[in-house]
């Protein structure tokens, strides 16, 4: 087993029939250091090559942080609308990769490669406002007719878990995957309680919370109010009635899967009507002092933070990046918390549950899930980010 190729190693330890703890080794290269000494324009051009996954979000965060540090005005309405369409298209593409290609095989169903390839071609290219509007409508149809069809043929929402599973499976497609995941058993919060969900904050609010730009140690293991927190689809959609039903019944992995589908519908709506009133923004930036800027972008996987400090010549003296993976795979984060502290007499079942938990939290780097004493016929899960 070559673990050197996997920047994120997730090692579950078992004592007897009990999963006792998780070791997380995050070996992701610290690429932000390569931006030191460059101009803001050079940095913005280099960032998508350093961070190929969610490249649009990464470049947008870099541009916004540098613009704030330089004291430049915020984007006008047309530019902001174009940015929101761009970010929504990228997030939808990232979610559909997981929903159509990765989740079905995990539960014994066929991946929908042709359907994904068709959508990928449309989402990956620059979109005019008219093209984005039409594509958003097609994505809404995808959710209603293909991903969760069983929930759109009844006048009321399911009242209990049994009704939820019946409707999920009645729709086929991803609904069948979701139903199978629920039937596989609960995966609730540990006895110590679930990791808190990361709240939304403005960029200025983050500067206040952090006391300025974050330092390197914080970016490697971020905390909020002194504790680990979860970012991403569940944090954004925990208030949805169907997601809340799954959480209340102890199906946290299934709740995250459903939250991804809700995110796709949200992305579709943003493609059709960017900057709609009352809809949370996808990006923000602020400056606490001249030459200093912080920006965040909401990506498919969660909150992405960029911070920059310029020197007296306007070149980058210090650059910080904190990605969603550092939140969700924190040593005390959701994977470590929910991946241990439960009985695992069957190594095959335990491995599958750990695999599903990792995929639900969706690392943005290649990863490997290893279970001590696992059945050698049950493969450890591996995953990889994609450009």
UniProtKB/TrEMBL annotation:
SUPFAM superfamilies registered for this protein in UniProt: HydB/Nqo4-like
Signal sequence interval, chain numbering: none
InterPro entries (UniProt xref): NiFe-Hase_large (IPR029014), NiFe/NiFeSe_hydrgnase_LSU (IPR050867)
Domain of life where this protein originates: Bacteria
Name of the protein described by the UniProt record: Coenzyme F420-reducing hydrogenase alpha subunit
Organism for this UniProt entry: Azoarcus indigens
């Amino acid at each position: 087993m070559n673990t050197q190729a996997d920047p994120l190693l997730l090692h579950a330890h078992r004592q007897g029939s009990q999963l006792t703890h998780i070791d997380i080794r995050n070996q992701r290269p610290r690429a932000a250091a390569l931006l030191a000494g460059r101009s803001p324009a050079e940095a913005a051009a280099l960032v998508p090559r350093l961070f190929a996954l969610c490249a649009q979000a990464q470049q947008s965060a870099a541009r916004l942080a540098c613009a704030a540090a330089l004291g430049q005005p915020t984007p006008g309405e047309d530019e902001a609308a174009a940015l929101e369409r761009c970010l929504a298209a990228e997030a939808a593409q990232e979610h559909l990769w997981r929903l159509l290609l990765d989740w079905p095989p995990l539960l014994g169903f066929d991946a929908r490669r042709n359907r994904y390839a068709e959508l990928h071609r449309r989402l990956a290219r620059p979109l005019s406002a008219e093209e984005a509007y039409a594509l958003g409508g097609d994505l809404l149809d995808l959710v209603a007719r293909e991903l969760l069809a069983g929930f759109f043929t009844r006048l009321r929402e399911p009242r209990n878990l049994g009704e939820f599973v019946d409707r999920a499976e009645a729709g086929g497609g991803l609904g069948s995957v979701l139903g199978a995941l629920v039937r596989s058993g609960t995966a609730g919060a540990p006895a110590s309680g679930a990791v808190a969900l990361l709240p939304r904050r403005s960029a200025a609010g983050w500067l206040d919370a952090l006391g300025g730009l974050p330092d390197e140690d914080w970016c490697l293991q971020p905390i909020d109010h002194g504790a680990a927190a979860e970012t991403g689809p569940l944090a954004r959609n925990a208030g949805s009635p169907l997601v809340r039903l799954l959480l209340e019944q102890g199906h946290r992995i299934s709740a995250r899967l459903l939250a991804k589908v809700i995110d796709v519908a949200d992305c579709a709506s943003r493609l059709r009507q960017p900057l709609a009133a009352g809809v949370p923004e996808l990006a923000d930036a602020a400056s606490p002092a001249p030459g200093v800027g912080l920006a965040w972008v909401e990506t498919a996987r969660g909150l992405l933070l960029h911070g920059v400090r310029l020197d007296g010549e306007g070149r980058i003296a210090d650059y910080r990046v904190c990605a969603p993976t550092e939140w969700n795979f924190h040593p005390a984060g959701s994977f470590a918390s929910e991946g241990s502290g439960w009985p695992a007499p069957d190594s095959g079942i335990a491995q599958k549950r750990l695999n599903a938990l990792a995929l639900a939290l969706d690392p943005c780097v290649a990863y490997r899930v290893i279970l001590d004493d696992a059945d050698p016929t049950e493969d450890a899960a591996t995953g990889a980010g994609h450009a």
